[in-house]
Structure formats: C-alpha cells, structure tokens
C-alpha cells in the first residue's frame, strides 16, 4: 500500500515546501539562462520553447505552494483523492493523481 497525504503533517508539508522552493529556484535560473540565449541577435527557437516550458513549470510550482498554504496539497484537483506520496516525491507540483492525468 502506498503512502498518501490524507492529512499531511507539518513536517511533510515543510519537506515538500522546501523541495518545491528548491525546484522553483532552479527553474527560475534555467529560465533566465534560456532568456539570455533568446536575447541574441538570432533568436533560438529551442531556447524560446525552453523558456516557455520553464515558465509553465514555475507557475505549477507556485500553484502547489498555494495549495500547501490553503491545506489542499496532496489531494487530486480532479477527483479529490489523495495523491500517493511517491508521486509527489517524483513530481512535487503534481495536481492530479495518475488516473486523472491518464484520463486527460
């Protein structure tokens, strides 16, 4: 049986908050690098796409941090079920369970 965050403890919420904040800082740095590549005289479409993808990741991380603050982190926004902790370890900004992700 997999662990889930039915009622996340303050320690697990803090752990995921730290993980999200670390991933956000890394994504921001990578996006800044991609934007610097885009600023060259010949814009690089790969760097532009990378920058856009990183911006979406940053937005997903911000949404996950907001869910922690409001107390809904670890619950699927699709069906309301608890998201297994193993999934959150791999993708801490996941907002849906595997079943709802596959159905989308």
Describe the structure.
α1 (10-38) packs antiparallel against α2 (45-70). Mean pLDDT is 88; it is low at 1-5. The longest helix has 29 residues, at 10-38. The protein has four helices and no strands. It is mainly alpha-helical. Helices cover 64% and strands 0% of the residues. Residues 71-100 form the Zinc finger DksA/TraR C4-type domain. Keywords: Metal-binding, Zinc, Zinc-finger. This is TraR/DksA C4-type zinc finger protein.
Largest sheet: none
Total beta strands: 0
State the helicity in percent bands: 55-70%
Task: Give the rounded overall mean pLDDT.
Answer: 88
Net shape: elongated
Secondary structural class: mainly alpha
As residue ranges, the low-confidence spans are 1-5
Q: Which series of helices and strands comes N to C?
A: HHHH
Report, as a whole number of angstroms, the end-to-end distance.
25 Å
Please report which band the strand proportion falls in: under 5%, 5-15%, 15-25%, 25-35%, 35-45% or over 45%.
under 5%
Compute the CA-based radius of gyration. 16 Å
Output the number of helix runs: 4
């Amino acid at each position: 049986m997999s662990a889930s965050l039915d009622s996340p403890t303050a320690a697990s919420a803090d752990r995921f908050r730290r993980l999200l904040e670390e991933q956000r800082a890394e994504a921001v740095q990578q996006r800044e690098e991609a934007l610097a590549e885009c600023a060259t005289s010949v814009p690089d479409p790969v760097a532009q796409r990378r920058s856009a993808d990183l911006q979406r990741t940053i937005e997903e991380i911000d949404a996950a941090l907001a869910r922690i603050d409001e107390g809904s982190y670890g619950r699927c926004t699709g069906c309301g079920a608890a998201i297994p902790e193993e999934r959150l370890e791999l993708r801490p900004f996941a907002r849906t369970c595997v079943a709802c992700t596959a159905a989308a």
